[in-house]
Write a structure and sequence with these properties.
The chain has 120 residues and is mostly helical. The protein has one domain. Helices cover 66% and strands 10% of the residues. It contains 4 helices and 2 strands, in the order H-H-E-E-H-H. 24% of the residues are buried.
């Protein structure tokens, strides 16, 4: 049984796909760089989560700072691949998945800002 899927080069050339995927990828790279430049590498504990009710409730190592953009990158890649495989049946689903990835990356940038703000 041969599995048909939309050609990758044509999928990338779609304006909605390339805009949302490219923007989301740039936001993810920016959040990685922002965390790398904003927080100095050290062996001290860092604040990773803050709530208004309890204050700082999650403290961890420097390497755990990159968990948020790492999760965002996984979401971005998974949504992109699912959108590519689903594009030949329903282009709207692919566009929606890429848009959702873009929105997730906005939240990743906001979470990166909060992590930097807590630790500076």
């Amino acid at each position: 049984m041969k599995w048909n899927h939309y050609p990758f080069k044509l999928y990338i050339k779609r304006l909605s796909v390339s805009f949302f995927f490219g923007s989301a990828l740039l936001l993810n790279i920016a959040s990685f760089l922002w965390l790398a430049l904003g927080i100095k590498s050290s062996s001290e504990q860092l604040f990773l989560h803050y709530t208004i009710l309890f204050g700082v409730d999650y403290i961890g190592q420097y390497s755990q700072v990159y968990a948020v953009p790492g999760a965002g990158l996984i979401i971005l890649i998974v949504n992109f691949l699912i959108g590519w495989f689903a594009y030949h049946k329903d282009p709207f689903v692919a566009q929606l998945l890429n848009f959702i990835s873009f929105v997730c990356q906005i939240f990743v940038v906001f979470a990166s800002y909060l992590i930097i703000f807590l630790n500076v």
